[in-house]
């Protein structure tokens, strides 16, 4: 369990309890050392979480509203909006994690901040992201994370069908359309493939390595330099 997840769970365990829990009990619950619990409690107390008690006696959180993880209204709005975007525009697995994150954030919001979020001016639409594109998005993401090649059946802007074996490097969202950035083994160069134009994809048992001249950051640097040069020549 990551520290951030443990801290959140620690707050949930201590919140509203009638009796204090000792560091030993908490350590057993989270399968960590008592020293880790002491550090976690100190971290939460310094962040403004009203944990009462002390080492050797036990800890609890008084039954009153908790600060929203020390985020202000604007920060919470940004986090919730970002989670809604992930939930609507990515793949099913990330969407589920986004909904879980939103539930955790909303669980500690005071009423006045919940009302503020209910009146948010932003609406995140998912109309153009169908199940096929979501599954392709997930397959591409997993291939990127696993550094596995993909075999794509692709239809370009001229409706020309082509087969490409690529090394997937990243997914870029262009406001309505996802694009797979990859190193094409046919062209031996970077190419962009719109997810909605991929007819099918097969993850291959072929692995690749990234380096300074074959990576998403290198691709972004080349594109940035290209557009900078175009602007300077105008």
UniProtKB/TrEMBL annotation:
PROSITE patterns: WYL (PS52050). Residues 139-201 form the WYL domain. Residues 6-59 form the Helix-turn-helix type domain. Gene3D superfamilies: Winged helix-like DNA-binding domain superfamily/Winged helix DNA-binding domain (1.10.10.10). It holds the Pfam family HTH_11. Keywords: DNA-binding. GO terms for molecular function: DNA binding. This is DNA-binding transcriptional regulator. It comes from Pseudoalteromonas aurantia.
């Amino acid at each position: 369990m990551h520290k951030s997840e443990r801290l959140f769970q620690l707050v949930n365990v201590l919140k509203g309890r009638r009796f204090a829990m000792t560091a030993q009990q908490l350590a057993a619950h989270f399968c960590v050392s008592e020293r880790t619990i002491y550090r976690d409690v100190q971290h939460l107390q310094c962040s403004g979480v009203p944990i009462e008690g002390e080492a050797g006696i036990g800890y609890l959180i008084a039954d009153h509203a908790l600060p929203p993880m020390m985020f202000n209204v604007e920060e919470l709005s940004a986090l919730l909006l970002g989670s809604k975007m992930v939930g609507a525009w990515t793949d099913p697995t990330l969407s589920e994690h986004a909904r879980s994150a939103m539930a955790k954030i909303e669980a500690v919001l005071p009423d006045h901040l919940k009302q503020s979020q209910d009146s948010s001016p932003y609406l995140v639409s998912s109309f153009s992201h169908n199940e096929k594109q979501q599954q392709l998005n997930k397959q591409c993401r997993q291939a990127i994370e696993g550094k596995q090649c993909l075999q794509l059946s692709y239809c370009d802007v001229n409706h020309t069908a082509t087969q490409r074996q690529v090394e997937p490097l990243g997914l870029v969202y262009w406001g309505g359309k996802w694009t797979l950035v990859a190193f094409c083994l046919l062209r031996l160069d970077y190419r962009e493939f719109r997810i909605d134009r991929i007819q099918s994809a097969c993850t291959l048992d072929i692995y690749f390595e990234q380096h300074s001249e074959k990576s998403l950051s290198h691709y972004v640097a080349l594109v940035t330099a290209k557009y900078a040069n175009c602007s300077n020549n105008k």
